[in-house]
Amino acid sequence: MTKQTEPKKEKPASTLVLNRELINYLLSVLESFETLDFNNRYSQYAEKLKTKILRYAKVKNQKGEDRAAVFLFGTEASTLIMLLTVYISSFADEPKDLFSEIGKNRIGSE
Predict the structure, then answer these.
(1) Residue 14, class by beta-carbon neighbours within 10 Å (0-12 exposed, 13-18 middle, 19+ buried)?
(2) What DSSP character marks residue 57?
(3) Model's pTM, two decimal places?
(4) What pLDDT is stored for residue 44 in this prediction?
(5) For residue 67, what pLDDT band results from cuts at 50, 70 and 90?
C-alpha cells in the first residue's frame, strides 16, 4: 500500500496589498484591455488576471481601511508589469531614454 501525499500548495511569488481605490484602478486598467479585440494577446492576459484577482484576492480591513491582498503566482507578476507598462506607454509623454544605462551599476561591469 502506497502512501498518498497531498500536493504542495504553491506559495505566491508576490503579494500586493491595495486599498479600495488602488484595486479599483488596477481592475479598471485590466478591464480596459478587455475592450480590445479578444484575439489580442494583451486582452487575453488581462482578462485572465482580472478573473483570478476577482476570484482569489482576500478582502480585509487593515488599520480601519478596506484592502485587498492580491496573490500573484508564477508569471502573473511579470505579466501584470508588462500590461501596466503597455497601458502607461499609451498615456505618458515620450520617456527619457535610459536604455543605455541598463547594467552600468552592476558589480564587475566596466
Answers:
(1) exposed
(2) -
(3) 0.78
(4) 93
(5) very high
* 22 secondary structure, DSSP code: H
Amino acid at 44: Q
Cβ neighbours of residue 47 under 8 Å, at least 6 residues apart? 30, 33, 34, 38
The set of residues, in sequence order, having a beta carbon less than 8 Å from that of 35 and lying 6+ positions away, is 43
Radius of gyration of the chain (CA): 19
CB 92: neighbour CB atoms within 10 A?
9
What are the two backbone dihedrals, phi and then psi, of residue 18, each rounded to the nearest 5 degrees? Answer: -120, 145
Return d(Cα 110, Cα 104) in angstroms, integer: 7
Measure the CA–CA gap between 39 and 57, rounded to whole angstroms: 26
| Helical axes 76-89 vs 20-34, angle rounded to 10° | 80
Q: List pLDDT tens digits, range 88-110.
A: 998 889 989 999 999 888 776 55
